[in-house]
Fold this sequence. Notes:
Low-confidence stretches of chain A: none
Radius of gyration of chain A: 21 Å
Largest interface: B-C, 56 and 57 residues
Strand order of the largest sheet of chain A: 1-2-3-4-6-8-9-10
CATH class of chain A: Alpha Beta
Oligomer: homotetramer
Strand content of chain A: 5-15%
Number of helices of chain A: 14
Structural class of chain A: alpha/beta
Mean pLDDT of chain A: 97
Number of strands of chain A: 10
Shape of chain A: globular
Distance between the termini of chain A: 46 Å
Amino acid sequence: MTDKATAAAAIRRMGVxxxxxxxANSGTRFKVFPQPGVPRDPYEKIDDAAVVNxxxxxxxxxxxxxxxxxxxxxxxxxKHAEGQGVRIGAINANVFQxxxxxxxxxxHPDPGVRRKxxxxxxxxxxxxxxxxxxxxxxxxxxxxxxxxxxSIRARQDRLAECLRETxxxxxxxxxxxxxxxxxxxxxxxxDVPDWGTSYVHCLELGPKAQVxxxxxxxxxxxxxEFIVAFLLRTGKLGGFDFNSRFYADDxxxxxxxxxxxxxxxxxxxxxxxxxxxxAGIAFMLDQCHNIEPKIPAIIRSVLNVQEMTAKxxxxxxxxxxxxxxxxxxxxxxxxxMDAFYTDVRPWLAELREEQGLDPDPIAAYHRSGYAEKIxxxxxxxxxxxxxx
Amino acid sequence: MTDKATAAAAIRRMGVxxxxxxxANSGTRFKVFPQPGVPRDPYEKIDDAAVVNxxxxxxxxxxxxxxxxxxxxxxxxxKHAEGQGVRIGAINANVFQxxxxxxxxxxHPDPGVRRKxxxxxxxxxxxxxxxxxxxxxxxxxxxxxxxxxxSIRARQDRLAECLRETxxxxxxxxxxxxxxxxxxxxxxxxDVPDWGTSYVHCLELGPKAQVxxxxxxxxxxxxxEFIVAFLLRTGKLGGFDFNSRFYADDxxxxxxxxxxxxxxxxxxxxxxxxxxxxAGIAFMLDQCHNIEPKIPAIIRSVLNVQEMTAKxxxxxxxxxxxxxxxxxxxxxxxxxMDAFYTDVRPWLAELREEQGLDPDPIAAYHRSGYAEKIxxxxxxxxxxxxxx
Amino acid sequence: MTDKATAAAAIRRMGVxxxxxxxANSGTRFKVFPQPGVPRDPYEKIDDAAVVNxxxxxxxxxxxxxxxxxxxxxxxxxKHAEGQGVRIGAINANVFQxxxxxxxxxxHPDPGVRRKxxxxxxxxxxxxxxxxxxxxxxxxxxxxxxxxxxSIRARQDRLAECLRETxxxxxxxxxxxxxxxxxxxxxxxxDVPDWGTSYVHCLELGPKAQVxxxxxxxxxxxxxEFIVAFLLRTGKLGGFDFNSRFYADDxxxxxxxxxxxxxxxxxxxxxxxxxxxxAGIAFMLDQCHNIEPKIPAIIRSVLNVQEMTAKxxxxxxxxxxxxxxxxxxxxxxxxxMDAFYTDVRPWLAELREEQGLDPDPIAAYHRSGYAEKIxxxxxxxxxxxxxx
Amino acid sequence: MTDKATAAAAIRRMGVxxxxxxxANSGTRFKVFPQPGVPRDPYEKIDDAAVVNxxxxxxxxxxxxxxxxxxxxxxxxxKHAEGQGVRIGAINANVFQxxxxxxxxxxHPDPGVRRKxxxxxxxxxxxxxxxxxxxxxxxxxxxxxxxxxxSIRARQDRLAECLRETxxxxxxxxxxxxxxxxxxxxxxxxDVPDWGTSYVHCLELGPKAQVxxxxxxxxxxxxxEFIVAFLLRTGKLGGFDFNSRFYADDxxxxxxxxxxxxxxxxxxxxxxxxxxxxAGIAFMLDQCHNIEPKIPAIIRSVLNVQEMTAKxxxxxxxxxxxxxxxxxxxxxxxxxMDAFYTDVRPWLAELREEQGLDPDPIAAYHRSGYAEKIxxxxxxxxxxxxxx
Lengths: 388, 388, 388, 388
């Protein structure tokens, strides 16, 4: 068990990165339900992210998505963030929404399309330079819908080539995170379907390439904490896109569907001593708040990560190791579950008060009048969404 | 084994219903890739459906989706169809795209929203009266995303009440098909997640309510042909929304992902003597052609259903029953597989020639110049999609 | 929220039925690892079940499995149980371990095998009469491994016929619970794969037939609490076979894999007022303790059910209903989660002390020396397992 | 499209390895149904394997499983095989059936158990030396059933250490294949759950370590042919354990559940030019014939692999590449499906006749009287099974 002071320090230092696009409208292929007060540009997204950070004290960075967050002056955007008390986190590339990308981007059979896609990746690194971001997050919608549609192997060769060019452009303090996803929007193959595929490409690329785990991108039954432990062991875990799911890539609030899974994941992080910022594991949210108000949903998500981390820090690791070593299955499980069942919320509320924060960030948000304010202020213009 | 003449007659009489919306643009939440020549209104959709029917001789009806296919004069639309050699099939209700439906339609906690949704269902029956359609197909996007969000049980009560009012409005020769779906766009519960739920509601409603099976709406591993056999036994199978999937509700072309499954489904239909139109089983397509050209994809889908049906008709049912009765597992399986592996395409080509059709409908389509014609003609206006 | 006194009374009255075979050896197809002290006959199994009941105060009945628990004198067995403070619960039939059942039992193509199987079911009712059991639990391993192997439909007819004969033999205060299972040991079809199939047969049989839910018998992604709510609404839920799983029918300790799911299930029970014994819902365990000591694992399982029930009783149902009715998704979810995250273990420990029990049943078991005693005493003879 | 002569040569050279244990009794945890004529020792297993090879001309090797196939004199066993026209294939290690292995073998927390397990692996290499086998196949049942039971990461360290010692003992012409499996008999984690884990260990070990794919060991929805293509690209695919499944590790006859998947897998092999023996891909069967007679089931399985390979050889690869390159989704899929739907059985029958074989190996087997002969001869003794 981590002692209370150490645990408190760990919690205080842990940051959860929120995503600019999560403050914007999102939905399913069936319908996007717009919400009042949704930001109309990257500046307003950052304003919302700053609110989450001010209330939780735990969301110091915000990820951007290009081109959704394209602006003329990235330096100004970075300064705006700074002024609001947050920093620009990962830059997320988008090579799936141009008409040219119907059959893929970096894996497309046409070299012209691959050129265009790679250029976009390079442009994202320019934006990293301009904003001070140190992380390029790559997710490719590439894949096929029908058996025979394209050569699985040839697509890998194309992917490797584009990744190489991108990797070589990275600056010294920059890195690339390669995300994998089992399916959607491709329905027969995706070109990076699992952690193994991402790992092999990252290994070939070099030390600045790492795997990022989106918790919603696995086949049913996949043991995600195993992947976490395994990648930590090999030094190739770069971070998480957190969210939760019951079925496919549901993109629900992290911890909402299976809080025990989140606890198990955070246990692997804690037990590998990978919680501290120096460990370089990015804890990012990548969610869609389709039917619930976005800002309080994101606050809730940050709190969920924090609570499960606190529970993981609570595990009596010495006793656990003893029970494991002696093969006492029930005792080891009991020690593990005891930490999960212990309510850490009062302790976290105390920590917040010590930091000068409201002990209940959700209630504080509702009291703040911010929701009413943005609903009133943000009229006119085009609400941001996945398309803009 | 059905003798050749009987099998030929069965194939000739079998109709596959195509869906108006499949001729329009569709996509995923990530992107809709528009295609050239896509219809701009219900009349043009029917024109495309008529092409599919003329080339295959096997797609005599076309389903409508309200409000996507709303017109001022349904009698005119029905006559347009007739003039093109096709008829209006099922009317599909849509209670998921209005902003009011964010938390449900017929299961919504607010009685005002339920009233609005039910009124839409009643309006669809008006359209059935006007178009001569005999089938109302109901799929509800209703459900919840988060545990605790609403009362599962109360939603069932609301559903039952709205279905009752709708059912009671049906004319003598009209029926209601209730579709089920495991998930999407709801990600914690859906209100009609499985065939059992649909069945119980249909049983309570009465003989004019039946279950419709969308082949893409099941949990991984579900044995769909078992459901087919079971519902046929109880007299509650109303029809199919055919498509295929590798993962979730992928909506790929039927038979593309697992042709053997389609064969097994058609075997249950054939062995229950439920292929003929009098049996009242509707064989409908409900697919999304996101990356492939729509009309030839739909022709291919009709052919896939036809081919697997022909294979099922080819099973030596007497020998199969003998092997089954004697417990000869390998022999029974061999007889079954032999029919699947036997190539029926030459025979179907012959049948087409006897009907005065081109033996190869896909090639005939490409030769026809229709694709080029609609791409040239259908300029201006708004291409139809899921939203219009 | 149920007030504390009412909640305490509900917890005190709730009984979890343990299974005689869970005290015996079990394993996978790869290996059964025997454990010291395992019972050698039904009397010793009941002794172990009585220990669980004495320590938890919550396991008053024990299920039998025939023929594994066959004895010459059932009256004596029932009296032995009574003497130990427990009663005989459900009688579980076994028609899957005789060589004749290779291709099925009540669904077998051979009427002779069906006769034999049905006779076994009738014999189980005789044993119910002799032991005072009021519940016959039916699970059939019937199914097929290969497409074409047998007629899905004909098997349903055979099943219905055998169930009818069995149902008609039930006494006035006896009932039949029909279990379903997606797969294993059959790998293509099972003859009762899902709740819908079980429901339809129970409905045809009559009011003394009900569905039993084994929590491990579903396809990935199935929302079990929906089924619970739905069956409660129709009056056809008879009970549970509790256990937990990550993959297939893993038969782990209930609550071990997904405690939040167990909480959601118990919420449906509580909110339908179906917790009390009069509601007739049997809360049974059906697990395999392959690698962990059996008695403490069963105690843990009883506690897990009790804890999740206590959490469910803790839900502020009034506030929840308000949030649901007003469509406040986040508030409703928050109220729900708050009950899950609140630690009920101290309160349950108090309740135990009020009942004169040790507040920590697991620790009390280890202190009792019972494990050492049975390991020393139960030498010689044949340890009980699934085969005997 | 491979020309006919080349295709015929490829088919003639392709060997499918059968497994000694598949001729023995097998079953599920619920029941093993014994069959008449089942071998009682490794010699009789080889006799049966030789029958399969004589009838198909395509099963030249037979895998052994240690200790199930332990004999005093391996040289004599190898000579017996040779005399029957077959050779010894892979040696399969078994570190899951000793009582010591309850909590694992090479990953066990106790170094004594790991020593014992590693010694068994080394012993298997001795047997390779004695029998001339060049392949050690490693599958570990290692894993945990409960969260917290053991350290996921520590188990990886132990695994790596034992694999290293084993690898270093391999002779110059010997290799090690590392199998992965998602679950069973472990139900929370397995220590080698997926191809990525196996790949990383093999990469660390060196060029004589490769991944083996058991087609039944994946999560639902996993695209196996992607893994095949990916591993071929990296040079780390060692072979297959073929079987088929609808749900979990069902171990049904390969091609029985999803023949189209098998075709897609063989297409990747063919298109990577990896079919020839020189490519070093082992095509092995690993199945359980629980309810069907074993020898004809194995013949059927060999034929299924052969038929899907012939179909894959039939793909018009030039036209396919053109369609793929030009982005013609429907055409590419059509070319692919055309090969699948074309009946190759008559051509394969011709090939057999050219080789002096019966065109219908199953019928030839039934005519041969072998089944009756072994049922009559193999009386007395102990039938072989998974335990012996």
